[in-house]
Amino acid sequence: MNTDKLQQTAKALVADGKGILAADESAPTIKKRFDSIQVDSTEDNRRDYREMLFRTPDAGKYVSGVILYDETLRQKAADGTPLVKVIESAGIIPGIKVDMGAKDLVGHPGEKVTEGLDGLRERFAEYAKLGARFAKWRAVYTITDDLPSAACIAVNAHALARYAALSQEAGIVPIVEPEVLMDGSHTVDRCEAVTEAVLNAVYAEIALQGVNLEGSLLKPNMVLSGKDCAEQAGAEEVARRTVRCLKRTVPSAVPGIVFLSGGQSDEQATLHLNAMNKLDELRPWKLSFSYGRALQAAPLKAWSGKAANLKAGQQAFFERAKANGLATTGAYA
Length: 333
Ligand code: 13P
Fold this sequence. Notes:
Elements: H1 3-13, E1 19-23, H2 27-35, H3 43-54, E2 63-68, H4 70-73, H5 83-89, E3 93-97, E4 102-104, E5 112-114, H6 120-130, E6 134-141, H7 150-169, E7 173-180, H8 188-208, E8 217-218, H9 235-249, E9 256-259, H10 266-278, E10 286-291, H11 293-303, H12 310-327
Parallel strand pairs: 1-2, 1-10, 2-3, 3-6, 6-7, 7-8, 9-10
Antiparallel strand pairs: 4-5
Helix pairs in contact: 7-8, 8-9, 9-10, 10-11, 10-12, 11-12
This protein binds 1,3-dihydroxyacetonephosphate.
């Protein structure tokens, strides 16, 4: 295993002032996004939309990497250039989502386990050839009074570590994504406790399976009040609790933590990241972003499926990327 190369890539993904664009929506998810702007989810429309994002002038100033869906990694731009080349020419690192989705966990109603380990070694070998230099696998955890179960936490930790080890074997940096969902009426206290338990389990498995920490990244949720909780923690509290939780659980050898936005508004996701990076305390890792919705909501709406809106879509994307790039150093105002 070439750990030097893995570590270089991991560091480049969290370079100062930069973060990741998650553009790896599966077919059903991108259809949902396109439905919201009344655009059909055809192969060409998906290509046009994503090509618009990747060709945004100067995006590479704030975007270090982009996570692609299988289709996009193989797709060509309208002029025939592979999209991977378009991304590389912008100074951005191509990545790939490799999980096959969260499926019902047998015997545990309301809970999910992420599948996709079978044949993953072979898929990684092909993805490496196609140009992917980092990868993503997402596990999800629902909070209720009784959930997540110990079983859900254990099986997803195991799968995340197995994925991460296979990814590194192929020379690809694994982004480990355990997402504690913000849906529900739980308190911020409960979110912090659950996130701590989940991350402890993930890093125990990662140690057990010998994953190289320096050549990996973590993509967690922030510690937030449940969406339907009457009392909502403010940005300062979210920042303080999130960093406290991560300090208790994430080894300092991990070079960076790139948050998901998870249904926060784009402005909220930026403010929370900024607040964390403004905290006056030492942190061993970079704190950056790997946002999907928080980077794409504005450009998706500005574009609305019309070629005439291409510049407006790129402008909207650039503004979100810049805001979050500034938030990685606490410089967003
Ligand atoms: P959101 O930022 O929309 O949560 O998407 C990030 C992601 O990649 C989820 O897996």
